[in-house]
Amino acid sequence: AQSVTQLGSHVSVSEGALVLLRCNYSSSVPPYLFWYVQYPNQGLQLLLKYTTGATLVKGINGFEAEFKKSETSFHLTKPSAHMSDAAEYFCAVSGSFLTGGGNKLTFGTGTQLKVEL
Amino acid sequence: DGGITQSPKYLFRKEGQNVTLSCEQNLNHDAMYWYRQDPGQGLRLIYYSQIVNDFQKGDIAEGYSVSREKKESFPLTVTSAQKNPTAFYLCASSTLTWELFFGEGSRLTVL
Question: Which residues of B are less than 8 Å from A34 in CB distance?
Answer without folding.
Answer: 98-100
